[in-house]
Amino acid sequence: GVEVGPQPQGVVRADNLDKMRKIVKHGLDFVQLFNEGREFPPCTIEVFKIMEKVDYPRNKNDEVIAIIHPKLQDQDWQPLNNGDPLFLTLDGEVIAYTGDCTVYPTFINEAAYYEKKQAFVKTVKIKLTAKHIRSCVL
């Protein structure tokens, strides 16, 4: 599957539709070239690995007691460091990130994830290395 976003439910955004078309085209081009026997050299790419889903702070009655901090809103895939603001309580208290490494949050404050108790997803940036590949064309 390909998910290109963020995009509200029931909304079609031209920029995201264009990104989706381009990535699907690149995928199909790769499959065609691979099936034709083209050799692809080794490569290294950076990817984001999902580490954990983070819920909103809640009280003992399981009610949300803080919202996404304004400095985190719309910062998907941007580095989040120890001490950076995460949440803002309704009383104005800032709840900061307390982690031992830089993370890259995504799906921040997505409406579709409220019911799943997910404020955002923490990811880390890693490098993947692929050896060269080539199909055996008969």
Automatic annotation (TrEMBL):
An example molecular function term from Gene Ontology annotations: hydrolase activity, acting on carbon-nitrogen (but not peptide) bonds, in linear amides
GO cellular component, one term: cytosol
Membrane-crossing residue ranges in chain numbering: none
Domain AstE/AspA barrel-sandwich hybrid: start-end pairs: 44-123
Domain of life: Eukaryota
Pfam (any one): AstE_AspA_hybrid
Protein name from the UniProt record: ACY2 Aspartoacylase
Organism: Himantopus himantopus
